[in-house]
What we know:
CATH class: Mainly Beta
Largest sheet: 13 strands, parallel
Helix content: under 10%
Radius of gyration: 17 Å
Number of domains: 1
Amino acid sequence: MTLFLARGAVIRATQDTSSWPLIDPLPSYGRGRELPGKRYISLIHGNGLQDVFITGENGTIDGQGSVWWDMWKKGTLPFTRPHLLELMDSSNAIVSNLVFQDSPFWNIHPVYCSNVLIRNLTILAPHDSPNTDGIDPDSSSNVCIEDCNISTGDDLIAIKSGWDEYGIAYGRPSSGITIRRITGSSPFAGFSVGSETSGGVEDVLAEHLNFYSSGFGVHIKTNSGRGGFIRNITVSDVILDNVRYGLRIAGDVGGHPDERNLVLSITGI
């Protein structure tokens, strides 16, 4: 499957939130990430695909997310907000040479995927836009993210692997992930692991990163009861400018509704 956006082309999401279909929650989350029940489908959504190419000549995918951000701030969201792009249970995917802007929620979310290359993207959202993560590989393996410029309202890149008891039961880690030559700014983290790590995160290399005007350079975050593991994470060649904290490893991030006695293991950082 190929989606190609020529120079000047724009895919623009509707701001009529009632026209967005609902889909089931991910099995490794058990519910919508923000609210119980279903979630809105992503603007571009694929499930069970092979040999996927989403690319172009720097065409734009515009989520027009302000209506969703306002609903979140007012507490009027009925369901979890949509991503701009979500690929599920897919393999051999390339996402490249595009601009993603103003996502309602996380921008790019490969989940249960393998062999994914994400490169040469510009991802933009205002710094006060809630939860507009740039790229969030989730319970996925053999992922490479490189040569991207990202400025959003939340973590620029966040590796995840499911949430609490559902992520533990699903049991699919994120592994074999390479992140390199990423530049950007966020009120939160440039590069993070977590806080949803219940399936485990391992064998990650992040290098040649350049973050400015941000909250954290590198943030490894979880919470008591998450379960899972974080191991073999290597970060090198990081340039930080006007960043509040260079590195933070925290065990008190994110709410936890389930079993608080589960212990997460962190090794090889």
